[in-house]
Each structure stands twice: as structure tokens, then as C-alpha cells.
């Protein structure tokens, strides 16, 4: 049998702040609320509940930030996949504007929490640039900037010359910059949320997968291997792209796509000044978008879509390495120190979903690749709902769990679509 590809530590694992002290749960305990998953959503929910004096136990199958929360690109981008006017069209004026305001404030919450709790998180907040890679993308970015500008966001349109100057690449014909965005060390942030939650009174158990949820006499029993059990009034499930069969058919409501990333060797001072010289983070208007930034160690990070399967070898990142050299010719031949990937949860409508399939059970799933801010804010909203029972605290209404039709075939279908996009996405660099 072939041996699995030996993955290197990600850049984030290699440079993160120390791991908070946790232990495996192997006894029985009680809580007001049990939370499954120690990513941004679960940890933010735990923090905001614990600050209210509510007894919280967090159960994580691996380690804090093991999933997408510790393996994303570290870009903190406000908003959703839809523009504000699209949200109004989907949900009506009042609900749509409220959702847009929620989404527009997600980046603020991340940076506010880092400051409030003095988290050891390398960060920058110079804004997010969305570059238009072809002329047809210019109308999209103009419309987006106009709608957010009308709602008070610090945005501006970039012409071709300014986009190329701020990005350090001649591959874009224009774009827009949103001053609310920024970048963080994402695993350090997850660990910072965990420390803050622990300080507020939450208990976090790692290496503790949840195997079963059962409800008896109005309370939930959350079972773990080795005899560990949490009895709680409420359960919040925040497993996102790593969702398995814990609740019937939940995993069939998403496509867990892998997002692949590479990081170069540290750049010289001259090279650093030639790429994203003012410290912006960036992603573009491609259907198969590229996202890139400089990190706190002076490396260029490039991210994009890769195979749905787990990687088999370093060749699974070769397309991103080629893109770095084509987008930034000055980096050709520089070499790469890190290659890694993490799963994002894609829903059919490209929106996060909230489910309440049984009394006292709340499920949050679907980040569409914007999880840093979105799931942090979702955690705060879910904590408000759990504490008060007020569904108006939630940015979205509950929806039923609706598996994707022919779910088992969706990866094949999406893989075919990705291949088509690579062939037809104007200005593609691969």
C-alpha cells in the first residue's frame, strides 16, 4: 500500500504563538452549553457565552484551529459573496440590510477582539484589494465598491496604474480597495480566542472527537471515545468543512473543498518593497480566485483551488508556484518553504447556514472561504441567541437541513467545473 504524502507543517503552524494548555476528556462532566469544534465559530461562541457567566465546554477532535481556522490564508475580508443590493433582493429590505451590516462589520470584530484580549497575533490592517483580472471584472468591482461606499465603508476604485502599483503586478486592469480588510496569523488568532475563552471560564478539551448526540429528559448527552461525556442543556455544532456523520445528513449539505497555499522563502528588502508595498491583502475576480499577501515573516503567500482529495505529493501545489512566478516575475526561481491546504465548506447558495433540527441543538455551517471574520461574528451572534433565545440576534433565519441532490457525485461535478473554469477564466496564469 502506498504511503500517504508526508505533509510539512504549514507556515502558520511553524510561526504560531504557543498552544494553550488543554486535555482530553475521559470523564463525565456537565455544562450549560457544549460546543463541538474549536475553530473560529466554536471558540467565539465559547468566549462570548463564558463572558456572560454561562458554563461552556468545548470539544475538539484534534487540536485548536486544526481545520480551516488554522490553515486559511489569514485574510480578514468583510462582506459575503453577495453584494448588499443582492442581499436585499434575496431577503427583503430590512433583513437584507441587516445582513449586509452584519457582514460588513465582521473584520472590525476580529481586530477589536485581538486588541481587547491582548492576543499575540501578528496582524496588519491596510485594507483588502480585489483586482479585476480582465476588463469585464471592472464593472463588478465598481458596483461592489459603490454599494459598500453608500453604506459608509472606506472604499475607493483603483485604475490600472494604481492597481498595478499597489499590487506589484501588471496582471490587473483595475480594482477596488476596502479599508476594512487586513491580514492576521490565523492559527495564532485561533489560539488567542481559545486563551480568551479559557480566561473567561470556558473549558476546552482537545483530542476529543464527538461520536454521538442524544437527547434525554430535556438535556443533551455528548459522547466521546474512552467514556468521556458532557451533559448539557444546549449543544452548538461548529465543524464546518470537517463535518462528518455526527448529525444525520448534515455533511451532505456542503462541498468540503480544499484550498491550497504556498509560501515562498523570505524576500529581500528590495523584493518586499516591490510586492504589495503598502501592506494590503488581495484576492481577485476570477471564478477560481487567487488570493495572495505578504506575511509577518516577509514571505509571499499564494492561495487557490486544488484537488478535492488530500494531497499526494508536492506536485499538487505546482500550479500555485507557477502562478507566483508569472504574477511576480521578480520572484522566479525564489523557492518555496511551505505548502499546505485546508477545507472550506461551500453551500449550494454560497451563504452560511444555521440549523436548529432539534430543541437545544444549534448548527452553523458554510463559510465560503471568508471564515475568519464571518465565523468570529457568527459565534458572537450564536452566543447572543443561546443566552437570550432571541432569534433576531442571528444574521440569518434558520433553514432545514437539505442534502445536495446526488451529493456523492458533486465532487466529480465540481471538479469538472473547476477544469472548465481553468480553461475559460480569462487571464488565467496556469
From TrEMBL:
InterPro entries: FAD-dep_OxRdtase (IPR006076), FAD/NAD-bd_sf (IPR036188). One of its GO terms (cellular component) is cytoplasm. Residues 32-384 form the FAD dependent oxidoreductase domain. The keyword Chloroplast does not apply. It holds the Pfam family DAO. PANTHER family: FAD DEPENDENT OXIDOREDUCTASE DOMAIN-CONTAINING PROTEIN (PTHR13847:SF281), SARCOSINE DEHYDROGENASE-RELATED (PTHR13847). This is FAD-dependent oxidoreductase. It comes from Microvirga thermotolerans. The lineage of its organism: Bacteria, Pseudomonadati, Pseudomonadota, Alphaproteobacteria, Hyphomicrobiales.
